[in-house]
Amino acid sequence: MNHQFHSEADRLLLDAKKALLQEHHRRFQELQQQGRWNEAMKQLNVTLSCAADVLKDSVALLERVVVHYQQQRTQNPGQE
Question: How far is CA 28 from CA 17, 37, 65, in A?
Fold first, then answer.
């Protein structure tokens, strides 16, 4: 798999996870506004877990981009 395709796939997956996070957060707020506290707390747990996944995946993607950039600089010094 080439690097560009891999990065595009990573970004698409990350975008999908962010959309899920937004939906979980919306659902949490809805339950909270309705005063459905037990359900809201369960939803908060799901929302926070999803947020942790998005953050972890974002950091991993950023690390891969940095490594790729550093490799490019090492292979092609003076070109930025």
Answer: 16, 10, 33
- DSSP for residue 36: -
> Does a structural domain hold residue 79?
no
Q: Tell me: the pLDDT tens digits for 11-70?
A: 899 999 999 999 999 999 999 999 999 999 999 999 999 999 999 999 998 888 888 888
Q: What is the largest CA-CA distance in the chain?
A: 60
Domain assignment of residue 3, yes or no:
no
Provide the domain limits for residue 66: 9-74
pTM reported for the whole predicted model: 0.76
Domain count, the chain: 1
